[in-house]
Amino acid sequence: MNFIKRFLLSFSSLLLLTNSSPVPTILDTDIGTDYDDQVALTYILARSDLFDLKLVICSSFNTTARAQIVAKTLSVFKRFHVPIAIGNITGVNNVWEFEWAQDYSLEQFSSDGGTVYQNGEEALANEMGKATSENIYHYIQIGPATSLAHVLESNPSLSKYIRLFAMAGSIYYGYDNTSTPSKEYNVATDIPAAQIMFSSEWLYFGLAPIDCTNFMQFNGLIWQQFLNYVISSSAVRSILTSYAVWYANGGKNIDAMEPFSPGTGTSTMHDVLAAFLAGAYTDVSPTISEILPLVITRDGYTQVNASHGKGVNSCLKFETSNPYLSTTVVGSIVLESIIKPTNKS
Ligand SMILES: *[C@@H]1O[C@H](CO)[C@@H](O)[C@H](O)[C@H]1NC(C)=O
Ligand SMILES: *[C@@H]1O[C@H](CO)[C@@H](O)[C@H](O)[C@H]1NC(C)=O
Ligand SMILES: *[C@@H]1O[C@H](CO)[C@@H](O)[C@H](O)[C@H]1NC(C)=O
Ligand SMILES: *[C@@H]1O[C@H](CO)[C@@H](O)[C@H](O)[C@H]1NC(C)=O
């Protein structure tokens, strides 16, 4: 216990010290279906010392429903100057978290001073176009790459001054830490889009594949401490209420390595690792990452391919032999950030 506490403290103080100026950031999300997007977005909003959030684009399936969840989250933080871009609707899927945002319409967001772009891809292209060698952007991709790929198809040079941090793929391990790779969801949902994302020219490409994200569950002591702030922190309250809605509406049935419930801890926070790596750039700790030449195959696998792959800084495992020691470090930093948001912007 003492060791874990000291370990956590030394890590969090190290990482919390590395703040220079906030980086212009685009978040591309399928928030509402799995719960990890909500924690990633909340972390990004809470850390205005690290991220200058310029645009949130909602991609895949019911993008209008997703946009409403983003709008409600922005309203919790009173961040009405962050525009929301609605990507193309690509079909019907579960949006288990939607009920949480039902009382806050996009019209309300607009009348509170917010901006909603109905043509999300156009707004995305415009924002990516603002990245230059003197104004480098982060792009945090935590859903299927549908919108991003449409934009890059007509304008491939837009990725040139952008660092991409993506939750995608499965390199050596699959879901539930199986020793064969899986067709990871974000890739499998739109394989041609993933192929475009992986073959584009990024200034940097940091990848959080399920090899590592499998272990991203926050529970035990750090979760119990987080629960203590439900009254005093509106950000904590918004996490706990949206998580409870998502869980009750179907989230409770999704697969995870460890059991989870709102009282005991989170489901698998796959996407949070991509956001965390963006915030800590250039540091990849507590992951062990390696630059691998990766391609997405036609059937949706992530393949190491020396002749055709582009170099991707891929998180392959964690520094500690027990991966949960490392992911608890990440969790403690993320949850602490949400408890005590920085107030720069
Ligand atoms: C999905 O989108 C349609 C509009 O395209 C909307 O009427 C419906 O209520 C949405 N909601 C959810 C939760 O899927
Ligand atoms: C996406 O939607 C926009 C309009 O909002 C449309 O112009 C564009 O063609 C669509 N893209 C695809 C690939 O469907
Ligand atoms: C993950 O799988 C590897 C290889 O099968 C195994 O050595 C390791 O103990 C597993 N980790 C966990 C936490 O289950
Ligand atoms: C690498 O990709 C190319 C093009 O898709 C393919 O022809 C080749 O077989 C791949 N190499 C390996 C080692 O899989």
Automatic annotation (TrEMBL):
GO terms for molecular function: purine nucleosidase activity. Belongs to the IUNH family. Pfam families: IU_nuc_hydro (PF01156). Residues 1-20 form the signal peptide. PANTHER family: INOSINE-URIDINE PREFERRING NUCLEOSIDE HYDROLASE (PTHR12304), URIDINE NUCLEOSIDASE (PTHR12304:SF4). The lineage of its organism: Eukaryota, Metazoa, Spiralia, Gnathifera, Rotifera. Gene3D superfamilies: Ribonucleoside hydrolase-like. Residues 26-279 form the Inosine/uridine-preferring nucleoside hydrolase domain. GO terms for biological process: purine nucleoside catabolic process. This is Inosine/uridine-preferring nucleoside hydrolase domain-containing protein. Keywords: Glycosidase, Hydrolase, Signal. GO terms for cellular component: cytosol. It comes from Didymodactylos carnosus. It comes from the Eukaryota. InterPro entries: Inosine/uridine_hydrolase_dom, IUNH, Ribo_hydro-like.
